[in-house]
Amino acid sequence: MSLERKAYKTAALLLLAASMMFTGCASKENHSTGTVEESGNNAETDIYEISMVYPASLEPKDLLVVQDEINKITKEKINASVKLIPIGWGAWSQQTTLMLSGNEKVDLIVSGIGTYSQQVSKGQLLELDGYLAEQGQGIVGALNGLDPDFLNAARIGGKTYGVPSIRDLASDYGITMRKDLVDKYNIDTTAIQSLDDLDAVFQTILENEPAIVPTVKYGNSIIDTYTNSYFDNLGDGFGVLPGYDNGLKVVNMYETPEYAELLNTVRRWYQAGYIAKDAATSTETQYNLVKAGKAFSFISHMKPGIENQESKLTGTEMLSIHLRPAATTTYNITSIMWSIARNSKNPEKAMMLLNLMYTDKGLINLFDYGVEGKHYAKVTDNMIDFPEGVNTSNSGYNLQMGWLFGNQFLSHIWNGDDPELWNELAAFNKNSLKSKALGFTFNADAVKTEIAAVTNVSNQYKIALETGTVDPAKQLPEFNKALKAAGMDKIIAEKQKQLDAWASSAK
């Protein structure tokens, strides 16, 4: 038995003994009033149940099957069980806000997703530094083994409230296209060096495949994520750093020449017919459009292994061209993290589980892929595929969300991916350009009214501009005028003030 497991079992026995001493004859009363259940413990075995809340596109039909297998590991190693609570992306913001602001028991929860600093400022997340030192050294070692900057970037006011999952902690940018059409029309991908080189490619598709749109939105825009290849968006895009540096001077992205040039490119494509006329209002995802044979390409952020990932999601073999270099910003790191909620009844156990998610290969592969033999089968020692008779459509557990559950580098590699994928991704993270503001997190409390007003203006103008639907020569000046009226300058001034203070304290 490992020292770690001995420590966990010893701690569990001491806790049990202490519990018996203090409860004694009152145990029956506690059971009758529900005290034990409210604390999250199983009354019969004193095994703490860790509530684990995370986003998911769907709830797999075999969720409880996987949960049972997870609990075999956690009961043995940390004397705890796990309750998996997936929440749909559409309901995530509202439901987790209610969970964290009320008294609902939540132990581990995915933080980030645009709300990290707000959750910290509201006191909804626990400071983790003490728990990391006592129960989370495996997390610290795994992240510091990549780059100490990654864990440090999650700090707010010098304190840690979230732990980033180990995944692609940088992004590069480019275009992903249907490989069959690239091959069919002998498209020379080596000649594609910039967005301007795509006009000829799109024209080929337009002339020869009239039922297929040459390029479609990724999210709500043709070029939304691509703007991040020019700027550190400092969390929300309302005040950015050009070139990830700019002497730490914050500017309005929508007034920069880079943004204007991107809009002119998208407008040119729209007028040429390379973008669908209903692009601004369509709600179909890029994946569904490609899968349905209605789209050729989309522009997005990328990472090593992106081609196989997008091929799985579209059900079509895809080919990716990387056009902009990789960079790491605070948001790359803090967008997906794990935190312990203020509502946790046993933060130590929550941290023990989190530590296993960064160190225990068996546990990680359950979270990522489900049960071996039922949801996946080994092809080699570290490469897997579906078992015979199982595929994406009938698998009872096919999340495709390995980037979420702790340390993805402990995951098996899916058949067809590069066997060296995790080594490549580690090098990708390590060698990326690091923003000069890496580690800075903006607290929007002082300008939350202006943030709301500017967001409304952005919603009014941005999608139409970034799908080419309107003329940027006319609409971009109006957009910026409306942004200023809504308080953009005040937001930038507050962000600059906080960034200056952060830079001074970091010296």
Give a short overview:
The chain is an alpha/beta fold and 507 residues long.
For the termini, the CA-CA separation is 45 Å
In order across it, which strands form the biggest sheet?
Answer: 2-1-3-12-6
Low-confidence runs of at least 5 consecutive residues: 1-39
> Roughly how many Å is the radius of gyration?
25 Å
Strands, total number = 16
* Largest beta-sheet characterization: 5 strands, mixed
Counting H and I runs of at least 4 residues, what is the number of helices? Answer: 21
Average pLDDT metric:
89
Helix residue percentage: 40-55%
What general outline do the C-alpha atoms trace? globular
> Which range does the strand content fall in?
5-15%
Structural class: alpha/beta
Notes on the structure:
The chain has a five-stranded mixed sheet. A four-stranded mixed sheet has the order 10-7-11-16. It has a three-stranded mixed sheet with strand order 13-14-15, with no helix packed on it. It is α/β, with parallel strands linked by helices and 507 residues long. The chain has helices spanning 3-23, 27-33, 35-38, 63-78, 89-101, 116-121, 129-135, 137-146, 148-152, 179-184, 198-208, 257-272, 286-291, 306-314, 330-334, 347-356, 361-369, 421-431, 448-466, 472-486, 488-506, and strands at residues 48-56, 80-88, 108-112, 155-156, 159-160, 163-164, 171-178, 231-232, 241-242, 297-302, 318-328, 336-340, 377-378, 383-385, 413-414, 433-434. α7 (129-135) crosses α8 (137-146) and α19 (448-466) packs antiparallel against α20 (472-486). It has 21 helices and 16 strands.
